[in-house]
Design a protein that fits this description.
Elements lengths: L1 H9 L2 H15 L35 E7 L22 H7 L1 E2 L5 E4 L3 E4 L5 H15 L8 E6 L2 E7 L5 E5 L6 H7 L12 E7 L2 E7 L19 E4 L3 H5 L5 H23 L1
Parallel strand pairs: 6-10
Antiparallel strand pairs: 1-2, 1-5, 3-4, 6-7, 8-9, 8-10
Length: 271
């Protein structure tokens, strides 16, 4: 049966060339699938609308960095945690060992102040809550109490067709998906930029978003700006599954190899 198929193709050059051309087209990755944020509406002046980003609500296993200051630093020394032995200040390990991890009940345990429930609060709400406790119970207004509360870095996990997979940490308050991908070595040529998945954790469960990074409208997506602990997955294109090559040259080389094998098989069967 296979031999008959080869005989028919070899005896009809037009079909042979058409088969080669169509296989080459379907195996190549189009350039438009590799370019980010394209203006697909063909409008020269596109208005970029601000994204309504909801503030992040704290969840279990988040780590908070709490710093309490006053006009006289000695007044608040006891309220601040000290560095653990062998831990360098300012490093990632310092944040882990000296930050306040939110337990399964949504609480953190602060020196002197004790347990404080922060589950579902924003970092700004936690800051106000701690500042009010200090002013109501321990200090007067003249002490100049000033509290800062931050997450111990913006943590996200990325997997799939990117240069560097794994859990990443960026030390900034806001991170968009383009920054996260750039920080991970960009999407590989074989990665599907049109259907990037973002899995986001909420107190009531997880939700999966899909975003097309080749479309400029992606900036209006609810997952364009990430939230801490987001999981990003970039799936492979079909061309990778086919194994024909990432570029036109690679695909052409693969196709020529296959056709050479088919020609050799045809000549052997004919003789």
């Amino acid at each position: 049966m296979f031999a008959n198929f080869l005989f028919k193709i070899m005896n009809q050059p037009k079909i042979y060339l058409l088969f080669l051309f169509s296989l080459l087209l379907t195996s190549c990755i189009p350039n438009k699938d590799l370019i980010y944020l394209q203006n697909k509406n063909n409008s020269s002046n596109q208005v970029v609308e601000p994204v309504n980003q909801k503030p992040y609500r704290l969840q279990t296993n988040d780590i908070l960095i709490v710093n309490i200051r006053a006009i006289d630093p000695k007044l608040v020394e006891i309220f601040n945690s000290n560095l653990s032995p062998g831990v360098t200040a300012g490093g990632e390990s310092s944040n882990y060992f000296n930050g306040y991890s939110i337990d399964d009940h949504g609480n953190i345990k602060l020196p002197i102040l004790g347990e404080l429930n922060v589950l579902g609060f924003t970092v700004e709400e936690v800051r106000i809550k701690i500042e009010k406790m200090l002013q109501d119970q321990y200090f007067k207004t003249e002490a100049g109490i000033f509290v800062t509360v931050k997450l111990s870095g913006f943590r996200y996990t990325i997997n799939g067709e990117v240069g560097s997979t794994g859990t990443k940490i960026l030390y900034q308050d806001k991170v968009n998906i383009m920054e996260a991908i750039a920080n991970s070595g960009d999407i590989e040529i074989t990665g599907d930029r049109k259907d990037v998945k973002v899995i986001r954790r909420f107190p009531q469960g997880s939700e999966t978003f899909s975003i097309d990074l080749t479309d400029s409208n992606a900036t209006s997506s609810p997952c364009f700006y990430l939230q801490p602990n987001d999981y990003i997955y970039v799936k492979p294109l079909k061309q990778k599954t086919w194994g024909t090559g990432r570029t036109g040259i690679e695909s052409l080389t693969t196709i020529i190899t296959l056709l050479s094998l088919a020609t050799t098989t045809y000549l052997l069967l004919k003789n």
